[in-house]
Amino acid sequence: MLRLCGLQFLLLIHSAVWLHLECLSVSGPLKDMDFNVQEGGGPRILHQFTLEPPAVSFRASGEKAGIIDIDPKTGILYINGSLDWETKQVHKLQVESVDESGSRVKGPYAVTIYVEDINDNPPEFNQTEYKGVVRQNSRPGKPFMYVYATDRDDPKTPHAQLSYSILHHFPKYFEEMLFQIDNATGAISPTKTGSYYLDPLKQDTFTLVVSVKDMGGMTTNAFASSVDVVITVMESLWKAPPTIHIKENSTQVHPVNITKVQSNEPDVIYDLFEKEKLPRLPFSVSEDGTIYVTEPLDREEKDMYTFYVVSKDSTGELVEKPLQIQVIVEDINDNPPVCQQDLTVVEVQENEKGGSNIGTVLATDMDEKGSLNSRLRFQIQSQEPQYPSGSLFYIQQDTGTLQLTGPSLSKRDSAKYSLTVLVSDPDFKTICDVEVHVIDINDQIPIFEKSDYDSVTLSENTPVGTVILEIQATDGDEPATGSSLIVYQMKEGDPNNTFIIETDSETNRGFVKINKALDFEAMPVYNLVINATNPEPLVQGVQYNESSLATFKVFVTNVDEPPVFQKPVYKTEVSEDIPVNTLVMTVEAYDPEGDSVRYSLEGDVRKWLRIDSVTGQVYTASLLDREKEEIYSIEVAVSELNNAAQKSKAFLVLQLRDVNDNHPQIATDNPTFFCYPVSGGEKTLIQAIDADELLFYSKFTFSLADEMNARNNWEISKYNATHAYLSPKHGNFEEKVYDVPIILNDNGEPPLENKVNLKVSICKCSTENSCFIEIDRQHSWPTAGQAIGILLGVLLIIGLEQRTQKFATSIARQSPRVTSWCHSKGPSFQLFNCQTKPQSYRSVPQQGTILSA
Ligand SMILES: *[C@@H]1O[C@H](CO)[C@@H](O)[C@H](O)[C@H]1NC(C)=O
Ligand SMILES: *[C@@H]1O[C@H](CO)[C@@H](O)[C@H](O)[C@H]1NC(C)=O
Ligand SMILES: *[C@@H]1O[C@H](CO)[C@@H](O)[C@H](O)[C@H]1NC(C)=O
Ligand SMILES: *[C@@H]1O[C@H](CO)[C@@H](O)[C@H](O)[C@H]1NC(C)=O
Ligand SMILES: *[C@@H]1O[C@H](CO)[C@@H](O)[C@H](O)[C@H]1NC(C)=O
Ligand SMILES: *[C@@H]1O[C@H](CO)[C@@H](O)[C@H](O)[C@H]1NC(C)=O
Ligand SMILES: *[C@@H]1O[C@H](CO)[C@@H](O)[C@H](O)[C@H]1NC(C)=O
Ligand SMILES: *[C@@H]1O[C@H](CO)[C@@H](O)[C@H](O)[C@H]1NC(C)=O
Ligand SMILES: *[C@@H]1O[C@H](CO)[C@@H](O)[C@H](O)[C@H]1NC(C)=O
């Protein structure tokens, strides 16, 4: 076998470039052969074919590309130059050997040269600049544009394997990128942070410098190119429409299109969720986001609706934050005026002068108060009889006040007039019936049957309500009118209303009753003067005189009465830690008849006290505890020593002063949470509470437990004596519930400290900054974010369950699990208020209420 070495070759093919060639160790007879040759690299020898007589030389034909050839004499197959993969990847040649006469001896044989790629081409973008548009609040990871680069190298090799990356990001407000690029596809999308913070009002143009590298971006000597990508941020299409006003009781054919929402994403499924618990939600949403009201609304039933519209992808995941829709139902005049009484009766004395106000017709209207729809006007439509004239009465148009127009009425003309009063609002009319009764003038005074009713003697314990006397006066005026009805009153002798007089309106008989307990010791005798009067005024010239008065005496007799306490309530304040047998107070009672008394306690259920039965001194009988009972209220009884039945009671109230004996806690009435993604620096208030009295927790101190995670993730700062701010220190929080160990100190006497684990949820928020959390439906539900779940009523969940059947039929029920909302498949969401938002880039958050019902 021939060994061909460089030096020998140098002689054959006079060129210095051969020098670097390695020795070619292969030679052989003519046959079909394949060669792999790297592109570039310059001239080289591939093979030497050996001559077999009678052949004397070789001949090559085919795709020689001007540089591939075989030396006829030596049989050396060589390339005099560089092959280029990008130009031609395979060269096919035919080689044959010939004899002296030029006739073929062997062959032709196929010699195939496969050119191998080397990485000799940098990637190139197919545009010099790219422009893209992204909507505010677009879904993170959802591409809104692509960049595209090519590389001429062999796509089967890493030489043409491209990897995209973002080199620069202008302007840069945040540590985190607002945009990301898929390194394989060149798809550009907002990051989670970007989805949250992008806002055309703050910054509407960004320039990214995107780089592409070949060799899969893996080696440092890969080729790279870069290009500018200019991104315009546009307002989100997905935004809540302004408050919608719908006229109630609409006659349009329902459903009626009231507004439209538009997702930033294509092909989303829209759905509605109620915010309030309603028997039904009279709204629906169509596939294209048009929202309809499904039936006429009634303002008098409900004048405002609030609900959410959500956009979901085909798997049921929420694509964007839920939007709140608010609908106000506007009043129309759909309620007629209503008379307050079927028949309004008015009495008028014969002597009433023209212009006198004789009564008012009352009517109401259910339409919106203060609007013209409930404005009522009054008008007399008819008067029966029309004698002596057709217009005896006048009604004030806007108040319904009835007056006499002209002369006084006379019973001889008519004792009764029937009026129809037309009450109208701008669209409706109602008739109210009125009867005017003409009554006699009041020219007779009540006359008592006797002027002196003598006396009665009553024991002081006669029960309240007892009738002690019946009286009678008579009145000559028209019966059953205000001119003859008699009202009896105690004119003199009863300053404290110890007595009361009731009248039988048919007979005018009066009944004197005891109104308040009698007390011999306070008032043994009453000298009473009773007067009798009419509710209607007397006609001019007539006056009540002595005949309308009567006198009466009441003698009160003494009975043995129970002892009485000096005070109805004995109250004192003591420290909760006083020792047993401490004197806390002394009660005192006396007996009206001067008998000796003895004291006892009643209702001392905690057995905290005892009383000295003779002196009335009250002592503690055991240890007290303010946290069991802050105000201990029992009764103290006193009775006559010789007649235990003569007994009375007073209240005994012990107010316990606090001693610091309770550990401080964190108030959990409101769940603590931050909207995801967290950017760091948001803050929310947390509150410390303590079962001890105010005095002892007026100065709580808050600190984080000395644990690495706590200190790295959170920050606490004092707000006031009871509240502190909690802030996440950075933005790398997942959507889940974190335990934050907090140390509370109440700074009391003695100071008490407590370590509590505060549950803090990081959750996706709605546009109203409410936390959206999926409820685990089948297990006991509050597993995710326990603190949160528990507070929100079962009602809401029930409400949602009902709605599931109605609105969410397309949603597959998933097996129970607890995840954050963005992975949820079911409609079971709950909403919470967001308390915090970053101050730096967005508007200041509003506090909303979710559970309004
Ligand atoms: C090789 O190429 C060079 C320049 O292209 C030429 O001068 C030389 O004659 C060639 N040699 C052979 C053996 O073809
Ligand atoms: C660049 O390539 C992409 C993807 O093939 C293509 O859609 C786009 O039209 C190209 N741009 C230009 C300017 O050729
Ligand atoms: C490209 O992205 C994939 C997945 O996103 C990642 O695993 C890979 O390491 C990335 N390649 C480069 C070169 O960054
Ligand atoms: C709606 O209006 C009609 C008259 O237009 C009225 O008869 C009906 O009572 C109204 N309904 C309600 C609920 O107010
Ligand atoms: C809804 O109403 C608006 C305004 O009246 C109208 O422009 C729109 O075409 C309507 N949409 C549908 C789906 O009827
Ligand atoms: C009747 O007695 C009452 C109560 O003292 C008093 O207000 C009223 O003026 C008296 N009426 C007459 C007519 O004296
Ligand atoms: C009326 O009440 C006052 C105060 O309660 C009391 O001092 C007075 O004795 C009472 N008078 C009568 C007649 O009961
Ligand atoms: C009171 O007046 C009536 C008439 O109104 C008269 O009959 C009666 O005698 C008078 N009584 C006294 C005591 O003056
Ligand atoms: C501390 O601030 C909270 C929230 O503003 C407030 O409700 C609370 O009353 C304040 N506490 C004190 C002791 O001032």
UniProtKB/TrEMBL annotation:
Cleaved signal peptide residues: 1-18
The encoding gene: CDH17
GO molecular function annotation: beta-catenin binding; cadherin binding; calcium ion binding; integrin binding; proton-dependent oligopeptide secondary active transmembrane transporter activity
InterPro entries: Cadherin (IPR039808), Cadherin-like_dom (IPR002126), Cadherin-like_sf (IPR015919), Cadherin_CS (IPR020894)
Entries under PANTHER family matching the protein: CADHERIN-17, CADHERIN-23
Compartments where located: Cell membrane
Protein name: Cadherin-17
A single BP term in Gene Ontology: cell-cell junction assembly
Organism encoding this protein: Ficedula albicollis (Collared flycatcher)
Cellular component terms (Gene Ontology): adherens junction; basolateral plasma membrane; catenin complex; cell surface; nucleoplasm
Lineage: Eukaryota, Metazoa, Chordata, Craniata, Vertebrata
Pfam families per UniProt: Cadherin
Alphabetical keyword list: Calcium, Cell adhesion, Cell membrane, Glycoprotein, Membrane, Metal-binding, Repeat, Signal, Transmembrane, Transmembrane helix
PROSITE patterns reported in the protein's UniProt record: CADHERIN_1, CADHERIN_2
Cadherin domain ranges (all copies): 32-125, 126-339, 340-448, 450-565, 566-673, 686-772
Membrane topology (UniProt): Single-pass type I membrane protein
